């Protein structure tokens, strides 16, 4: 039935006097979505013809599929009611091209809001007699490309951004690294290196610009002076008073004032081409700890503890574990004085495991936990072996650690006269070369680092439910 409807999607071309409807579809073809004001500005039609054509596209004669539908979109930074937008249906998308074409998904408000804000810039540029390309893809180097939100007159980039919290750090980092590579390539020679970023933010937002500054500073420290500059402005202010030929109204994105970690001078970037030369068992362990440390260093202030010695060398895992452990386990804290449940540490560990860039780790832990549970019912030897495998061959292996080295991890079974009655983990760091890196040994003791990793490993089993490691038969995290 669906395929039959898609086959009937070209019915609009058989309609007499269909210029109005085709003009509206042409407007929607730019980004898949548009507001009423966008449609009026683009088609240059008056109110009544636009409304009649929209009604016809949404409710065609019996037997023909609708080509557009409506959706309510809450735009950030805009007061009042949500915006009523018009979105292409799959049949509407097919009517614009071959039968396999599909409309943009646009299932989340943030995605649809982003598309509408891109249309704001497109229409504003069109009214200024400028050429604008939305979601422009430019290839560069080998097998790389950069996607630009809006490119004006083939030379000026406008990026549209919304609220950016901790979970968006990975995306921002990848975007800035992508810009760095693009502007270092010959494909950027006709593109202005002064990138305009338009933020659609609520008046209460206090973190987005800071997080962009933080990431910009961190990427600069990793790659050196960046070959581009970021200039930002509130999107609504720009729409009210657009400046296309100058940076009037824009502010230079200044580096963060926070103390950032100096990256090691011999840090070598691992490119996709380099990784592909490695065998599969090496490729799966190429984890970008720089990015993970960046995310965790932004999470840390939420527990009112500052540590300013993050780096990308071998010590990174221990620093991550320490930041998680210290969330609840500090001198005079409720865990120490009142035997409180370690809520802060678990919240940080949960956030860490569910970061987008840790998706593979989370899946491996969820799968590995099933083996642990099975081993628990097969006797103490099998249980201990399953836990050892879980810690070494899933969690630690993900961060490129292997057995029989200076890092030792035991799963301990208590004896009858032991002070503990449960199975627990012991960690020993035999060689301080694991902790190489400026600053770490001055601040932390080996015992504290060992205790931090012990707690995290134990937590993966003891608090598996709270951490989202228990899944149903379909592999989804168990709802609580």
What would you say this structure looks like, in words?
The structure is a single chain. This protein has 3 domains: 107 residues, Winged helix-like DNA-binding domain superfamily/Winged helix DNA-binding domain (Arc Repressor Mutant, subunit A, Orthogonal Bundle); 125 residues; 184 residues, no CATH class. The strands form 3 sheets. Strands 4-5-6-7-8-9 form a 6-stranded mixed β-sheet. The chain is elongated, with a radius of gyration of 27 Å. It has 19 helices and 11 strands. The N terminus is likely disordered. It is α+β, with helices and mostly antiparallel strands and 480 residues long. The chain is 42% helix and 14% strand.
Helix and strand topology:
Layout: H1 2-7, H2 19-28, E1 33-35, H3 36-43, H4 47-58, E2 68-73, E3 83-88, H5 90-94, H6 109-127, E4 132-140, E5 144-152, E6 156-161, H7 169-183, E7 194-199, H8 208-223, E8 229-234, H9 235-240, E9 251-252, H10 272-275, H11 280-283, H12 289-299, H13 316-325, H14 334-338, H15 343-353, H16 359-376, H17 380-398, E10 407-412, E11 424-429, H18 440-443, H19 446-462
Parallel strand pairs: 6-7, 7-8
Antiparallel strand pairs: 1-3, 2-3, 4-5, 5-6, 8-9, 10-11
């Amino acid at each position: 039935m669906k395929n039959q409807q898609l086959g009937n999607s070209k019915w609009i071309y058989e309609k007499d006097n269909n210029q109005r409807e085709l003009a509206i579809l042409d407007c929607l073809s730019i980004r898949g979505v548009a507001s009423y004001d966008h449609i009026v500005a683009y088609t240059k039609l008056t109110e009544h013809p636009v409304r009649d054509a929209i009604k016809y596209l949404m409710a065609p004669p019996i037997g023909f599929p609708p080509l557009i539908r409506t959706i309510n979109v809450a735009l950030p930074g805009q007061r009042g009611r949500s915006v009523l937008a018009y979105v292409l249906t799959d049949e509407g998308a097919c009517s614009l091209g071959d039968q396999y074409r599909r409309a943009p998904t646009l299932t989340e408000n943030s995605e649809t809001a982003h598309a509408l804000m891109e249309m704001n810039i497109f229409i504003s540029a069109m009214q200024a007699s400028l050429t604008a390309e939305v979601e422009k893809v430019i290839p560069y180097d080998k097998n790389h490309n950069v996607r630009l939100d809006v490119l004006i007159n083939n030379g000026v980039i406008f990026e549209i951004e919304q609220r950016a919290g901790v979970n968006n750090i990975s995306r921002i980092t990848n975007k800035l690294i992508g810009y760095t590579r693009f502007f270092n390539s010959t494909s950027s020679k006709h593109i202005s290196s002064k990138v305009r970023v338009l933020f659609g933010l609520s008046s209460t937002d206090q973190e987005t610009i800071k997080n962009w500054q933080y990431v910009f500073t961190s990427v600069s420290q990793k790659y050196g002076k960046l070959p581009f500059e970021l200039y930002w402005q509130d999107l609504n202010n720009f729409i009210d008073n657009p400046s296309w030929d100058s940076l009037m109204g824009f502010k230079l994105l200044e580096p963060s004032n926070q103390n950032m970690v100096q990256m090691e001078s011999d840090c070598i970037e691992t490119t996709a081409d380099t990784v592909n030369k490695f065998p599969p068992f090496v490729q799966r362990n190429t984890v970008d700890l720089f990015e993970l440390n960046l995310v965790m260093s932004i999470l840390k202030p939420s527990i009112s503890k500052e540590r300013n010695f993050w780096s990308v060398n071998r010590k990174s895992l221990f620093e991550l574990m320490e930041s998680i452990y210290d969330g609840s386990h500090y001198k005079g804290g409720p865990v120490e004085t009142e035997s409180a449940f370690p809520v802060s540490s678990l919240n940080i560990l949960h956030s860490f495991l569910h970061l987008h860039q840790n998706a593979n780790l989370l899946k491996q832990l969820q799968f590995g936990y099933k083996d642990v549970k099975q081993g628990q019912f097969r006797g103490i030897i099998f249980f201990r072996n399953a836990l050892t495998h879980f810690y070494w061959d899933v969690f630690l292996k993900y961060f490129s650690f292997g057995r029989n080295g200076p890092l030792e991890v035991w799963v301990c079974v208590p004896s009858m006269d032991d002070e503990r009655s449960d199975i627990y983990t012991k960690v020993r760091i035999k060689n301080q070369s694991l902790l190489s890196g400026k600053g770490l040994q001055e601040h932390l003791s080996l015992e504290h680092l060992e205790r931090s990793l012990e707690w995290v490993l134990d937590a993966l089993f003891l608090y598996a439910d709270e951490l989202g490691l228990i899944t149903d038969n379909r592999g989804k995290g168990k709802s609580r």
